[in-house]
């Protein structure tokens, strides 16, 4: 299997565990199979789904739950300029592709040097991930409903593990290593002084620095 396909499959496999985690969490929050499955099929972005269910489980209003999910999911729109040049086909094909523009597919696609491999990596990762995520959601709901204490599964480690897997293709490049190191440092410094979830958002401040390093590397290579 070519490396770009293998990386996409491995990342999708890691997200399978997160899908199970979401299913268990959705069950413990009172969502039924139909509700959780609709979220996984039509929302299809883990951070937004977890945020929405967390707010709902905590007694928040529907507006607050949906608003929080949309706010977190809005970051996917920023990936459009990177992915759009890779896509081919008409309006319908691009509309389907838009549903797959998420952290994981963008990470794998943009890690490729060849546009054809990047395009193939995008679709391979997206399709595998969609399948794994939705099957995982169903399995998690079934497992959660059969357990008194779902926490014994240790699935709380699945979410950070998938983000580590997400980083791997980019750590092969200098811009990726700079971004990962700086973002990790920002998050570690922010943990003692900020609310839960804020350090991860602050770590995104490292992205512009990584982009500057990447542009410089491209200029040096062209000269």
Tell me what the structure shows.
By secondary structure, the chain is an all-alpha fold. The protein has two domains: 3-154, no CATH class; 173-223, no CATH class. The chain is 73% helix and 0% strand. The chain has helices at 3-28, 33-42, 46-57, 62-73, 80-83, 91-99, 103-110, 115-145, 158-167, 174-190, 198-203, 206-222. The longest helix is centred in the middle third of the chain and has 31 residues, at 115-145. The protein is globular and about 60 Å long.
Features:
223 residues, mainly alpha, globular, single chain, 12 helices
Count of spatially separate domains: 2
Regions with little confidence, pLDDT below 50 for 5+ residues: none
Shape: globular
Q: How many strands appear in the DSSP assignment?
A: 0
What is the strand content?
under 5%
Radius of gyration: 18 Å
- If you average the pLDDT, what whole number results? 80
Distance between the termini: 34 Å
Largest sheet: none
**Structural class computed from helices and strand pairing:** mainly alpha
Query: Which range best describes the helical content: under 10%, 10-25%, 25-40%, 40-55%, 55-70% or over 70%?
Result: over 70%
Order of helices and strands: HHHHHHHHHHHH
The number of distinct helices, counting runs of at least 4 residues, comes to 12
């Amino acid at each position: 299997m070519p490396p770009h396909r293998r990386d996409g499959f491995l990342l999708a496999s890691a997200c399978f565990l997160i899908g199970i985690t979401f299913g268990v969490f959705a069950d413990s929050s009172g969502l039924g199979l139909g509700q959780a499955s609709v979220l996984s099929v039509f929302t299809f972005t883990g951070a937004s789904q977890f945020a929405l269910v967390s707010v709902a489980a905590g007694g928040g209003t529907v507006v607050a739950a949906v608003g929080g999910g949309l706010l977190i999911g809005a970051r996917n729109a920023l990936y459009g300029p990177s992915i759009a040049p890779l896509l081919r086909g008409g309006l319908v094909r691009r509309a389907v592709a838009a549903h797959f523009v998420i952290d994981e597919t963008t990470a794998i696609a943009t890690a490729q040097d060849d546009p054809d491999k990047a395009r193939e990596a995008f679709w391979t990762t997206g399709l595998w991930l969609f399948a794994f995520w939705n099957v995982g959601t169903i399995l998690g709901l079934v497992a959660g409903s059969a357990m008194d204490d779902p926490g014994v599964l240790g699935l709380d480690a699945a979410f950070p593990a998938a983000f580590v897997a997400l980083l791997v293709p980019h750590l092969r490049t200098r811009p990726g290593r700079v971004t990962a190191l700086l973002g990790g440092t920002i998050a570690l410094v922010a943990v003692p002084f900020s609310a839960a979830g804020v350090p991860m958002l602050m770590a995104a401040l490292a992205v512009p620095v990584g982009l500057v390093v990447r542009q410089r590397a491209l200029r040096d290579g062209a000269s």
